[in-house]
Design goal:
The chain is built from ten helices and no strands. It is an all-alpha fold and about 200 residues long. Helix 5 packs antiparallel against helix 6.
Length: about 200
């Protein structure tokens, strides 16, 4: 019963479509009809501007962190915390509130692993910042950070369960970015202008 409750709680936390809500509050627009039509933080940056984007990024991360923190605090069990994190990420990627179409999971996964393995996340964040600063592509930075996360988890000598979980999430995030990868290879991916919203 307790496990079922944490599964439901974690999924619903992850499923809160902050990108949709914040964009609606800031602009009155439906985020699913503009930009990439993705309700994640990157598209919020493009459609609603940097303030809305940062708020979405922080909230999307928080909804990954909270279920894991709650599960770990109440049960003190790593496997339960991992299940909570998995359900939160699933909730974000396939939210019931938007017809099971959500974001790509980068910010929410970062929140999950911040609660599970903070040092690994900091290393991955470093990769993200360096790649984005050099190239200006948020998708490329996300892809490489996701790719490196299991490596950092392995280096920091986490448990086998956490490593397998990080590998699973990394692969899922990479799969969600396949359209971005194709555009990057074709030279058609757009760079993100973080200090102003783009023309719609």
């Amino acid at each position: 019963m307790k496990l079922l409750l944490i599964i439901i709680f974690s999924y619903l936390c992850g499923a809160i479509p902050f990108g949709f809500i914040i964009t609606k509050l800031f602009t009155g627009l439906n985020i699913r009809k503009y930009g990439s039509a993705n309700p994640g933080a990157t598209n919020v940056f493009r459609v609603a501007g940097p303030i809305a984007g940062v708020i979405t990024l922080l909230l999307d991360s928080a909804k990954g962190f909270l279920p894991v923190f709650v599960a770990a605090s109440i049960w003190g069990n790593q496997s339960t915390a991992v299940i909570a994190g998995l359900c939160a990420i699933i909730g974000h990627m396939w939210t019931v509130f938007l017809g099971f179409k959500g974001g790509k999971g980068v910010a929410t996964a970062a929140g999950v692993f911040l609660a599970l393995m903070p040092l690994s996340v900091l290393f991955a964040l470093g990769v993200f910042i360096v790649v984005f600063t050099i190239f200006g592509y948020i998708s490329l930075a996300s892809i490489l950070a996701a790719f490196c996360l299991p490596i950092f988890v392995l280096i920091t000598k986490s448990s086998k369960l956490i490593f397998i979980f990080s590998l699973l999430i990394s692969i899922t995030v990479l799969i969600k970015h396949i359209p971005n990868i194709k555009r990057l290879l074709a030279g058609k991916e757009n760079k993100l202008k973080i200090f102003k919203k783009e023309k719609l």
